[in-house]
Protein 1
Amino acid sequence: MAAPYLMEIAAAAAPAPSTNSTRMVVLMGGPIAAGHIDVSGCGLQSRGWVFQEGLCSPRGLYISRRHGLWWDCRTMVDAIDASEPIMTGDTDHAFNPRTLRRSFPQAEPPANSLHQNLSFNWYDWIMSYTLRNLTRQPDRLPAVAGLASYAFSLSGMTYAAGLWKEDILRGLTWRRGNSGYAERAPGNAPTWSWASVTGPIHYDEFFTMRVDHRGEIKKRPKLDLEITGTTIHEVRPGTFGNVQGGEIEATGILRNAATMLVGTGLSADWYLDLQPAGEENQFLESCQVLRLAMAYRNKQNSKPQVYFLIVRKTGEGVNEYQRVGRGYIELRGRPSPKSELPEQGIWEQAERVTLTLV
């Protein structure tokens, strides 16, 4: 049995014969409804540091006010006063850590498909993780360092400030949550990493770029961003924790953001990461749209979408840009086996530019 990793205990004050009062720990619980264990209200479930513990641990022992003493692993959930165990997959209940833990790969040595599985699962985990709270915002990367280290040990992929170099294009497509603008997170995470902002982040559902068994994109349109180098400056090398910045060297197509996104009639959906100083439309005049890749939603008859970053010059290095947003354009029509989509009209007069993202 692994060491307990999630515990909620009610504390209450009660009189004692020898003193005026003493503080006693009281375990409070009640009968568990058959087939339903809900820990969504557990305080520790909202904490960022608990996330990787619940995900990486093969089993857990819990004490809570609502459910008393109970246990879970990858195949079952059992409680001290339950009539019978709940077999995983047999009953729909709301225990999120169990669901996440089952998605965590257990392979030794890694299988051929592990790169692909990890690169796709990782961003689902990060979406769940960023919904949680951190007392110290600079802990945004350290609080998943153990998870990143374990994923690295299984896959051999190269970690890059919360993203993976082998799947870097997909990693760049995060956006802030729907609740409002994010804020810049303390620390020096590069602006292209989700760790550079506070609050929840989102990756689109069903997202695929036709990744092969190595986690690499098999087919890329000629207009896709070509990444030539990724450099990360870790505060403590090899710890998967905080960084002192990072750069992506790339060659891609840039277009003025206001020209592309305002009043063109394109079916575009976009988000700015942080609240601009003035109106969004005016802010976009000083920004560029950097095309990332054409992607497909993994469902029948889906239209392809071109994902892009909204970037802005830093005013420091030559062609040095920082990320300020993300979006996509939904293309009309579907590609045929012998031709590419007619994107020339969208990106006409655009030239490939060598740039640095920081």
Protein 2
Amino acid sequence: MRLAVALCALILLTLCPARGDDLRPGYLEWIERTPDAWQVTWKAPLLGGLATRSRPILPAGCIVASARRRFVGPTVVETFTVRCTASLAGRKLGLAGLETGFTDALLHVAPIGQPAQAARLTPQQSEVAVAARGSRAEVAWTYLRLGFGHILFGFDHLLFVVALVLLIGGWRRLVATVTAFTVAHSITLATTTLGLVTLARKPVEICIALSIVLVAREILRPPHAAPPLARRAPALIAFAFGLLHGFGFAAALAEIGLPAGEIPLALFTFNAGVELGQLAIVATTLALIAALERLVSQWRRPAAVAGAYAIGAVATAWLIERTLA
């Protein structure tokens, strides 16, 4: 049993990065200001403390009139004024050097008087053609996938949801708890993104790691012990911690960027993607638990304990790293 716990912790420590939110895409935005001038913004995440070498591709007939560069947290932001002699419809936009990088990027194009266009750039497809006319469905689909990917590869949020599933027994209590978590982080995601509430990122990240440690600790309490608040009212605890995690989602979305003119749609679909990813995590965890119970019925408690130790070990490492950063 102890060996299984140690192996689980070692595997999770190996698979999860030191930070729980390191997988961040870049963001490339083209906004048409006048018929011949575009404001181009390239927000590139710092990977390992280094700036990516990817650079915006300029179509033929476009030149840079002005440029500036600044650092915003773990992101390099480059802003250009680009003058073009012809329409961008049918022309290709993208990033040179993305094929040698380790991150994807989101492309957003906003022509004057037309629906915005959005696409995901990858190392395999680093440029796309601009359509003659975009659609809001493109923006919605892009941000839905972005939200889904964030919860699956934002390891701190993923481990918190898994810990909730391990802590709570019974479908009804689990549904109520996950719903409370969803409502809470939706509130802070929306209010923070819209600029109504702001919090410094470092204490939020520290508290998110601490929330995972605390839930893992509750899983380890003996079943015969007096039930703490986390077991008596898990929905209340999930709501409180959900408010914290919402600030984390908002920080990730701020780094990615929101399309001008489509902020409500992008915010809604990003949040919907997060919820779909969350449901996928819950369903997968429950399926694994059910499979274990079919194999050996008495494995449920040992499996929960092993999972709690592994999750707690990873979260403790994040807590120390974020506190000392």
Protein 3
Amino acid sequence: MSAITAASRNTKPTEPHKSWKKINEERKALKRQRKQDKALKDLQRVQDEEAAAKDATEAAKTVKPNPSTVSIAVPGSILENAQSAELRAYVAGQIARAACIFRVNEVIVFDDVGVATARETKRSYEQDDAQGNASATVRSSSLQLARILQYLECPQYLRKFFFPLHKDLKYSGLLNPLDTPHHLRQQSKFRYREGVVCDKQAKDGHSYANVGLLNDVLIDKALEAGVRVTVKMDPPSETTRKQRGTLVSPDEPRRETGVYWGYQVRIAHSLSEIFTKSPYDGGYDVTVGTSDRGTSVHEVPSKSYEFNHMLIVFGGLQGLEEALANDEKLTVDDPEMLFDHYVNVLPKQGSRTIRTEEALLIALAALQEKLQPQHADIETDLSDLLPRSEDTGVTMRRDVLVSKKKKRKLEEKPDSEAMEAIEATPAPTPTTSPKPAPKPVPLHANPFNGRAAQAAPPSAEEADFEVVSSTLGVATEAKTGVADNEDLSRFD
């Protein structure tokens, strides 16, 4: 009896049995709760998206305007005046260097010969000549100039992706590097970088880009591999090892930081296409033509060229007049009518002609004080984030530097043992040096021996030489008292 009582005490009270009706009601209530939670989450997500869109709209209203731009147009025929392939490449390098030094934003390579004049010497740039589209052909010199300009502007770590081996780039290794701010080193910490989209698997809506670092960067857009992009680097995060970035416009680095971000290259098939195919809305508001027949640049007032998008056009071997004559679409006779200003950048020139690569430097330097941009670049101190001039060049290995430091220390530190050994060494006894062998007597007397004997210094046997100060000669000359008008023929 006691065992039955103990067993009844140890057993837990059983839960009341639920009916199927109650179970279904609980399930329905749980389902309704889940739907409500999901609806609240969707509502919160929509509100967040609306807030983000509102912020983006407000930011777009307050976004900084793009800084004013300067474009230059040079004829491709200037390479045909070079005597060799090396010089042709070097001329293109000079143009690229000048464009970067003066912060040019667009370089236009135009054909000043004309399709009708040189159709037989042209080859296709955008499509095959067999299609019969004359506007799609370009002269080989213009194509080579444009290709070298693009090659030099591209950062070094991206060139292998965009420029395969080509005969136009055969001598590109001889050219001076541009060393522009967007040619960043691996250790640079600037927040904007140029990159190329990699053919690498990434999560949906994302892709990887090579921006010149050890590892690829995950960007926020899914793009086709091989596309050049500008990436804004996100601050490093402690929660993830992957470096992330945001895809931005190529104009943003210059707009936000004031840093020069290279130039764009465009090919124009004629002089008229320079103006009609401008990439800017509304075209160029100020155009300048350069010629020795123009107005002197010294007569132009300072800050008188107010512009937003300026264009400066340079002529070739025959000047802008020849380019105008070869353009079938233009009906004017005087090139001055094509430009707002027609200036002579170097009056009273000493040479009969000025080469285009020389005129480029002269004109951009002479027009600097004449320009007044509507939206100037902001000035920020980014010297700690960008490569500096002392960073350019070959860096020595650490072992070489250490060995040089050790060698310098050994040279500066005196060796006491060596000094004691030198002091203990007895002085050498003077010995009579053997007399030199007599010189052979020439068969014929030298007529210049008289003058040579007068100017010849005493031999080592006659006098001992010693190093004297340079001021001693002045004192000796003062003692001799040689007058300015005295006959000096004896010194001849």
